[in-house]
């Protein structure tokens, strides 16, 4: 069981590190979204809005120290995963754009 846990942890760290290494792509995507040149998926927009509201909101489990940090961390992790998937979609979009021109 320990081996499975460490493999899963390593995989999660790899996903987070991919987003950090693709931060230029992430910032380019967010810039194009802001300028109206790219449209993120509805689920990504919804996840970002509700996720950030949940993390900032003091109305969740923040009054219970460990549980409050854990649930905010889980929501942040899900946002990172969602943004990673969206950057992959953005890369495919850019590749198709280059292919058409």
What does this entry look like structurally?
Helices cover 82% and strands 0% of the residues. 4% of the residues are buried. It is flat, with a radius of gyration of 16 Å. The longest helix has 36 residues, at 65-100. It has 101 residues and is mainly alpha-helical. Helix 3 runs antiparallel to helix 4 (65-100).
User: What share of residues is helical?
Assistant: over 70%
How far from one another are the termini?
51 Å
Q: What does the largest sheet look like?
A: none
User: What sequence of helices (H) and strands (E) makes up the elements?
Assistant: HHHH
Low-confidence stretches: none
Shape: flat
What is the count of helical runs? 4
- Protein structure class: mainly alpha
Q: Kindly state the mean pLDDT as a whole number? A: 83
Q: Compute the gyration radius: what is it?
A: 16 Å
Number of strands: 0
Q: Tell me the strand percentage band.
A: under 5%
